[in-house]
Amino acid sequence: MVFSILSTFHIKSQMVLSPSGYVSVKVDLSNEGVPRYSISYKNKSVIQPSSLGFVLKDGNNFNNGFEITNAETSSVDEFWNPVWGEVKTIRNHYNELKISLRQTTTQRLLTLVFRVFDDGVGFRYEIPRQPAINHFIIEKEETKFNFGKDHTAFWIPGDYNSNEYFYYKTKLSEIDASVGHTITEISAKKLFDNNAVQTPLLLKSDDGIYINLHEAALVNYSAMNLILDKNSFSFTSHLVPDAIHNAAYLQAPATTPWRTIILSDKAADLLSSKTILNLNEPSKINDISWIKPQKMIGIWWEMHVGKSSWDKASSKHGATTANTKRYIDFAAKHGFNGILVEGWNEGWEDWFGTWKEDVFDFVTPYPDYDINYLSNYALEKGVKLIMHHETSSSVTNYERWMEKAYHFMKKHGMEAVKTGYVGYIIPRGEWHDGQWMVNHYNRVLEKTAEYKIMIDAHEPVRPTGLHRTWPNFLTCEAARGNEFNAWSQGNPPEHETILPFTRLMGGPMDYTPGIFKIKMNHYNPTSTFQVHTTLAKQLALYVTMYSPLQMAADLIENYEARPDAFQFIKDVPVDWDDTKYITAEPGDYVVVARKEKGKENWFVGAITDEETRTLQFSLDFLNKEEKYIMTMYRDADDAHWKAKPEVYVIENFVVTASTILKLKMAPGGGTAISIKPATIEDTELYKKYKVK
User: Fold this and answer.
1) 214 lies in a domain?
2) DSSP string, 180-247
3) Cα(198)–Cα(168) distance, integer angstroms
4) 548 is in which domain, residue-wise?
5) Which residues share a beta bridge with 630?
6) Is the peptide bond before 200 cis (omega within 30 degrees of 0)?
7) In this predicted model, what pLDDT tens digit does every residue of 230-256 receive, in sequence order?
């Protein structure tokens, strides 16, 4: 680490470059003392001068009249190993500029910190302890992102309560959040501005620069939406307010989350960025031995397709002792670590949309669910039950029960919990993405860590890399998942090709792939709903949609009917030593290769949108001294996501690092590939792969 301190009285601008000089940031003050920044990437302007600051509740706005009192530069180049992840080792390499400001009228102090990486920028506000004031009520954060050009955007509407939308691809000038989905799909919808969008936001400039706009280390603060000025093509941050319209409450010393701008002139390279992770603090958990990436099955999809119900009042109750025992046996037979059981506890008859504070107590099972027997039976079989805590957004109630609920879990040998926050937040007036709820989600991470419990959070705020700090935070939803295909218009075929560039930039997603019975008229003859992919694409999603907790989401009988395709789900790992994003284009296709943790096995996932697509690439990431056996699960020649989604072909070939693969994917299709070191028998049994 290298430091330099500059005496900067009367100096109004500073410049900092990334280590290789690809990214440059200029910070200055306007004539009115307004802090501003601008960003260039490879000598091309990305963000034009954009102002910084706050509007405070006390009327003394914290956005002008500043002078620079000091500036420091430093450099960091270090390596660290994540507990789990897409790669074994991550490099954290940046140059930092820290500028100290003083507001001349109030003598209040503010610090701007910019960390500049070769693939982007993170910056945040720091409010030091100071004599003028020790607490700040922020009414608005006025961070601007002035692009000045009508870029192409991949966006979802601004919403305080939900991110469960499919993405729109338009020019910035065409953004209109009023086209958002129906209230029947998003029960707690709150669109606040027709020009508002959520982060992570993906932009593509006409000169080929991909820009991801998001935040890192969201702690004790509200999530950031963005409001577009279509005249200047400039976004202004918009923080989710509380019940009395305040955005955040800070006690000095305090820091805001990092505002992140990830940059690349190659779409695939954008997906490799670790900048958001690097901007989060290191793990706060010393003993990490209990944190274990894993695959699960569960009593879940059968409720979404109408075969079973969550509540005991129905004759189709899914979470019975007998049904759970069946899932335990299946998991043990096929090597799955966990079994998620939803609808196990009393309260499901009267839980949704009631705004009742005490729907669930999280320790009382239904009479037909023998939790003592089942937890012991699972232990005997070498698998674990995964707890489900649907809070119905009665968060005050959940906080009262957390200690007792986690103690109950540990008593029954459970090491992971899926939380849910469906509905309007209690306390009333708070939103899913406001500061109060952000603090709640973080309290849950800390409390579960005390109990050595891993977390899969549904309906949370979108992730911002906090799984580095709390590695028990395995995954979360925070986007429109596979479940929407069961009972709504579903997710268009391009959806999964956009999510890696948007939602997954902040952290892993529990997308629940692996659906084999694609059309819902299998369960209900009158249904017109279906999964908008081929079966082969559902396999490929295990590689393209990263998560250290992956669910084989379909019903047992659907896997038993197709054991050959199910083999890929059994084989594919959830933790990796290396990841290569081979080629990608948002909204069109993604191809990624991953190397299994501690082994020489590689897995490749390739997916496309609604278009037939042929892609060709090298396997040069393989060991050049080895021969491998490749098992390819591809779309059949006549496959189509809508017409013939369940037809596929499985082929085996011998490959090496010099092999060139040519993949043809059906509309809405994909290809899943496992590559393992070949035995002598393999090389004699299978042909060498050749491009046709």
Assistant:
1) yes
2) PPPTTT-TT-----TTEEESSEEEE-TTS-EEEEEEE---SSPPEEEEEETTTTEEEEEEPP-TTS--
3) 12
4) 479-497+504-692
5) 653, 675
6) yes
7) 999 999 999 999 999 999 999 999 999
Assigned domain for 445 exists = yes
H/E element, 560: helix 556-560
Decide: helix, strand or coil at residue 567: helix
Strand 294-299 vs strand 338-341: parallel, antiparallel, or unpaired?
parallel
Q: Cα(187)–Cα(421) distance, rounded to whole angstroms? A: 12
Within this chain, do residues 51 and 145 fall inside the same structural domain, yes or no?
yes
Length of the chain: 692
Rounded Cα gap, residues 464 and 507, in angstroms? 7
**What are the tens digits of pLDDT across the range 496-512?**
999 999 999 999 999 99
Name the catalytic one among 483, 494, 496, 596.
483
CA–CA dist 9, 5 (Å, integer): 12
Q: Within 13 Å of residue 118, how many CA atoms lie on the same side as its CB? A: 10
My answer on whether 182 and 262 are in the same domain is: yes
Same domain, 146 and 200: yes
pTM over 0.90, yes/no: yes
Q: What is the CATH number of the domain that holds 643?
A: 3.20.20.70
CA neighbor of 91 nearest in space, from 366, 341, 275, 343: 275
Is 483 labeled as catalytic in the residue annotation? yes
Number of domains in the chain: 3
